[in-house]
């Protein structure tokens, strides 16, 4: 297995400031929701792949452009989430997968708990349940949750033609019989709602270009609630759920939990950072991002290539996954930086695997 570029365990780690701000994103029109596919002038039938909401890595690019490289060394973000303007600073996070939502309704029908004797999740259920529920973060520690199974956005497909300068015809690339017309999955967000991310660094409010297509958005920062600050500082214990996707492992391999090297030797064995009793999760999904590509080093002002560096393709454990560990853990903010893959930057900067303790009543049943 190849060497990972994570920091060594003995390297001193400077603690980063805790999350202090909600970053809200209000689109001024459509938002980016595709991996745009190019179509030929003769064949205009097709549909690009969809990816929404944008990950925290997308927002990180705005911080880097606005604040500069040296000012984002301590940056930490997390998301994506969403909320309603008149309910902020409360917002919605993914529902843990052991909370089974009744089909066609917004209420919890079953709560799965881990039975340490039977070594299985109980009760056994054969019914079909809703997927992809969301719960208000201020309800997290309550017994009764207000669940939302609907999201406040919808896909809107539209064409992006690039025309010839002197005629109304799709532009064709030189030496290639291929046009530049492509189909984008734009996303329309309900005007009463916004995307929400967590940040430990303040960003000036204003209009920014956001995402791969550079759609205009209005961004504002506001302090997080005291309730959320207390929740984020709590140890996650032995039973917790992810509220953001998690990418674990080395730069070449993806795992379902953090992996660390036994020692600093080049070919040192990789071992799990945790010992778990159980994991409740779904199929992993692909995860990639792009970073700036510096042309020159050593100058006060770095020059960047137009072409950004594409990260290695990886797989992420989906948000909502529930872990039951043999030993309790501290709060996510205190997790060791070496648990997170590093390619350009540590994925902890983007809130990889942000976790919250499950409500105490359920955690007691799981232990």
Low-pLDDT ranges: 1-12, 35-48, 361-367
Question: Into how many domains do the coordinates divide?
Answer: 1
Number of strands: 28
Our Rg estimate from Cα atoms comes to: 22 Å
Structural class: mainly beta
Taking all residues together, what is the mean pLDDT? 82
Helix content: under 10%
As laid out across the biggest beta sheet, the strand order is 3-14-1-16-15
Oligomer: single chain
> What is the tally of helical segments?
3
Which sheet architecture does the biggest sheet show? 5 strands, antiparallel
Strand content: 35-45%
Separation, N- and C-terminal Cα atoms: 35 Å
What is the overall silhouette?
globular
Characterize the structure shown:
The structure is a single chain. The chain starts with 20 loop residues before the first strand and ends with a helix. The radius of gyration is 22 Å and the shape is globular. The chain is 7% helix and 35% strand. With 367 residues, it is mainly beta. It has one domain. Strands 3-14-1-16-15 form a 5-stranded antiparallel sheet, covered by helices on one side. The protein has a 4-stranded antiparallel sheet with strand order 20-25-17-28, with helices on one face.
